[in-house]
Write a structure and sequence with these properties.
Elements lengths: L1 E5 L13 H15 L3 E5 L9 E3 L11 H17 L4 E4 L15 E4 L7 H7 L6 E4 L2 H9 L4 E4 L31 H7 L1
Parallel strand pairs: 1-2, 1-4, 2-3, 4-5, 5-6, 6-7
Length: 191
Amino acid sequence: MKIAIISSVYEQTPPLRYGGIERVLDFLVKGLKTKGHDVTLFATGDSSSPCNLVHFFDHPVVPYEPNAQIIHSQKACRYINEHNFDIVHNNVDISVGLKDLLKVPMVHTLHMDVLSKSKQFIFSHFKDANYVAISDKQRQNAESYGLNVVSRIYNAIDVENYSPSLHRGKYLAYLGNFAPFKGPHIAIPVC
């Protein structure tokens, strides 16, 4: 299958430091390549994920500039239409409306809280898009808002880098950026 994956222009893929979406997409690219798929990643030019890389910005656009992501995604759609892809996996909320410009199906992974005001604004215009939730709670919230959630697929990780333990430790690890939608206000009292 010929798969197009649209990443953000705010971090390279994989990121040097924090970049949750870009790290997950690197794992996804590697997994799809292992399964024999032809994968093209639309990301920044300094990305190094092992696939065909198409870029419109040489380096991450910092500070965040929404117009850069719109330009990147629109150019990606043009490229996709000209190169006979089978499916598009979009990962940038601001680009979900570009589904109507594509000649092939697009699925959009929800990486953030769909009930935030900024997300509701874009999603309210494209409730009929094909969405994938990354958790059961996110799927519940998205469906309650009327989004067409076609599946729930957890974020990918490289299990070779993590050793499970059957013994309880005396600590709690919090992974994620320190933002309200990541739940630090829940983790702190638990500690």
